[in-house]
Amino acid sequence: MIPTATLEDRLRTVARERYHDRHPFNIRMHDGTLTPAELRRWVLNRFHYQRHIPVKDAHITAKLTTPALRRSWLRRIQDHDGAADGEGGIERWLRLGEAVGLERELLLSGDGVLPGVRLAVDGYVNFCRLRSPLEAVAASLTELSAPGIMTARIAAFERHYDWIDREGLEYFRTRVGQGSRDSAEALALVLEWARTPEERQLAVDALAFKCDVLWSLLDAVDGGDRP
Ligand SMILES: O=C(O)c1cc(C(=O)O)c2c(n1)C(=O)C(=O)c1cc(C(=O)O)[nH]c1-2
Prior knowledge:
There is one protein chain. This protein is mostly helical. The chain starts with a helix and ends in a 5-residue tail after the last helix. It has helices at 4-17, 24-31, 36-63, 67-81, 89-99, 104-109, 115-130, 133-139, 146-160, 170-193, 197-222. The chain is globular, with a radius of gyration of 17 Å. Helix 1 (4-17) runs parallel beside helix 11. Pyrroloquinoline quinone binds next to helix 9. One of its GO terms (molecular function) is pyrroloquinoline-quinone synthase activity. InterPro entries: Haem_Oase-like_multi-hlx (IPR016084), PqqC (IPR011845), PqqC-like (IPR039068), Thiaminase-2/PQQC (IPR004305).
């Protein structure tokens, strides 16, 4: 039997070693060498991911079997959708869009989202819709690495892209705390639920799949716009 500590180590290793902070496009973003057009392409395409996070969290919530679990997962939907119009993570991402020069109407229209990004996001939503609660929750564990990448991103944007209004970075500032809390909560559930070696392997594989989703998204953005 593999002890629980080993599963946590395996998950943390996957979340670290296969994370999209190592993707060439992310490295260029943080080095400050993206052109404004490239940065806009990333913000526009990532909005497609952002707006689907509460959809996938609704699929996960529907699989949870106790009021306490559903209540805690519902909070994630509210983090993104807000308690009212003009609040929440999706609204903050729209403001990031405006700070880089993209009209919110353009982001909301979905125009310009790359085919590879649509496929990656569909893949993630459908994975959480079709797989077990263990696998769906384990897939969210990329967020073990998210607070680190967000902190690095805030510093990189402030340093290298001074044409972007700092207020636009509020999405990332808010996500540092939310991501730490969400990943701790998800990790505790996965460690509790994955009791057999097979279940532990499913959790690790789910996390590896999610790393591939994020990697594919950046591959598509790195490939440039359609002619
Ligand atoms: O910018 C990023 O690098 C990044 C990564 C991730 C992630 O690691 O999954 C998320 C986010 N951002 C994010 O903003 C977010 O709301 C989020 C939700 C989830 C999830 O799987 O439930 N991941 C992420």
